[in-house]
Amino acid sequence: MPIIIPEEVSLPRHPSRDRARVRSFRCVHCGLDVPADAPGTAHRNHCPTCLWSRHLDDTPGDRAADCGSSMTPIAVHVRHNGEWALVHHCTGCGALDANRIAGDDNPLALMRIAVAPLARPPFPLDWFARL
C-alpha cells in the first residue's frame, strides 16, 4: 500500500509541536520524489503522478492526524467555483477527504478518476437500447 514518506524532516503530529518545513517527500505508491511546493495550492498533500496521498492532516497543513495511512484517490469533486478537488479514501481509518488539485497534477490520471463511474454504470448499457 502506498505511503508518502517525507525525506528531509520528520513531520510533527500536532500543531502545538515545532512545525518544520518539508521540502520534499517520496511517494511509495509510485516512488516519485515530490517537491512539497505545488502550483495552485499552499499544502501539497498528494503525488502529482499517481495522485495517492497520506493521512497526515485534520485540516489542510496542520499535520495533526494520528492515522498516517495511505489514501487512495477515488473521485473528483467539482466545487461551487468550478475548482476540482480529489476525493481520497484512507486505507487505515476509512476517512474521506477532499483535497484541492495542484497545477502539476497528471491530467490523464485526473480524467481517469473523473470518468470511472461512466465506464462502470450500475446497470447494463443495453438498457438504453430499450428506451
Automatic annotation (TrEMBL):
InterPro entries: RNHCP. Residues 23-111 form the RNHCP domain. Pfam families: RNHCP. It comes from the Bacteria. This is RNHCP domain-containing protein. It comes from Streptosporangium roseum (strain ATCC 12428 / DSM 43021 / JCM 3005 / KCTC 9067 / NCIMB 10171 / NRRL 2505 / NI 9100). The lineage of its organism: Bacteria, Bacillati, Actinomycetota, Actinomycetes, Streptosporangiales.
